[in-house]
Amino acid sequence: MNEGPIQGNAVVGQSGGPTAVINASLAGVIEGLQNVGAIGKILGMRHGVNGLTRDNLIDLSDTPASMLDALCRTPAAALGSTRDKPDLAYCQRIFEACRRHDIRYFFYIGGNDTSDACRIVNEVSNEAGYELRCFHIPKTVDNDLVMNDHTPGYPSAARYVAKACMADSCDNASLPGIKIDIIMGRHAGFLTAASALARRDSDDGPHLIYVPEVPFDLERFVDDVAKVYDSLGRCQVAVSEGIQDTSGQAIGAMLIQGETDAHGNVQLSGSGALGDQLAGILKAKLTPAGGKPPRVRADTLGYMQRCFPDPSPVDVSEARGVGRFAAEVAASGDVDGSISIVRTNDEPYEAGFKRIELSDVAAKTKHMPKEFIKGTNDVTDEFVEYAMPLVGELPRFAKL
To answer: Looking at the structure, do residues 181 and 116 belong to the same domain, yes or no?
Structure first.
């Protein structure tokens, strides 16, 4: 094992869905490497490993501090991202590109599929006897990476969801009816659960919250909405795009005959079909015989929730910190891994970083724990206490 830095170049890339703070992680990697004398160049991949294999690289070595600070305020992926899911053959091409450019440090910012690609590249380099220090830097608004208290990108997306639902609750009270908000989250309900942070008073919405971890029953859903509507004269509903039936089949996938990405996932976030279908069912089921149908509307929050330029201050700081920490660990010796965020204190909120094995996080999915879920249509106070410190201060609205 080589102690300390090894002579060579470094490369960093971004993968998967952009977030409000993915560029802060990029800035952290760059600044963490700039003072490592053994590193020749700090290269950026244009559109992730797709660009690396095509030699589409940019030299980031002399990026000034003012630009790094600006990156931390810039949403989406400044280098460009990719949805490519590298298999073994693809990872061998990635490794060959690293060897071609004398790259000894490989940093990849992304979710669980990104961590798996990082793992495979690491294994290929080890088999070739080539020292390549591979690090996965966490990123996902879904908050579904194992061994992380939360992931960079989630607090800012949760902040957006909370504020959007706060405003929508006011709208729903102004013109009473039934309102459905479809929120990102294919397999994990953390982001939809963040809608609960919108509540200030007992009658504030969302009144019902549905996450993928709880099997979705259509008849029960209609009954839930009817009860709230009869009681309050209105009902705001937060629904995860990834709600599933008792067999694990995604409700949205059954309704959407659309394109799939490289991972075989139906593009749920790009369609309003789930919201429209649920709205149509409610209107049909809740219209009294010979009577007037209730006012039912649906919005799909869509891609804005993942990269809206109003990030959580905690998120910006931690996203930059995980990038810097990855660079420091990589320069410390012949090690590889992923970086996780560990909560060390609740009040006041405090967290730190640690290195974990790539195999511990690669291609695995974290779900909402049972203690965060209340019945079939809500979240617990324990979830609210978990999420509130992450999103930053939320506005307070007046009521007459």
So the answer is: no
Q: How many degrees, rounded to 5, is the angle at CA 324 between CA 321 and CA 329?
A: 120
**pTM of the prediction?**
0.94
Q: Cα 65 vs. chain centroid, distance in angstroms?
A: 27
Strands 178-183 and 235-240: parallel
What is the token pair recorded at 210? Answer: 């549905």
Q: Would you say 32 and 66 are in contact if contact means Cβ atoms under 8 Å apart? A: no
> How far is 45 from 64, CA to CA, in rounded Å?
18
Cis peptide before 348 (omega within 30 of 0): yes
pLDDT digits (tens, 9 = 90+) for 159-178: 999 999 999 999 999 999 99
Give CA–CA dist 44/41, Å, rounded.
10
Q: What is the pLDDT of residues 195-231, one digit of tens each?
A: 999 999 999 999 999 999 999 999 999 999 999 999 9
In a shared domain, residues 161 and 94:
no
> Count of domains in the chain?
2
Q: What are the backbone angles phi and psi of residue 348, rounded to the nearest 5°?
A: -75, 155
Q: Are strands 39-45 and 57-59 parallel, antiparallel or unpaired?
A: antiparallel
Q: What is the CATH number of the domain that holds 18?
A: 3.40.50.450
Rounded to a whole number of angstroms, the distance between the first and last alpha carbons of the chain is 68
Is there a catalytic annotation at residue 217? Answer: no
* Pair of tokens at residue 123: 């294994």
Q: What is the DSSP pairing of strand 208-210 with strand 39-45?
A: unpaired
Alpha-carbon separation of residue 335 from 95, 152, 318, 356, 394 (angstroms)? 17, 22, 22, 10, 40
Q: How far is it, in rounded angstroms, from Cα 200 to Cα 172?
A: 15
Active-site position among 84, 142, 204, 378: 142
Number of Cβ atoms within 10 Å of the Cβ of 333: 13
Other C-beta atoms closer than 10 Å to the C-beta of 284 total: 11
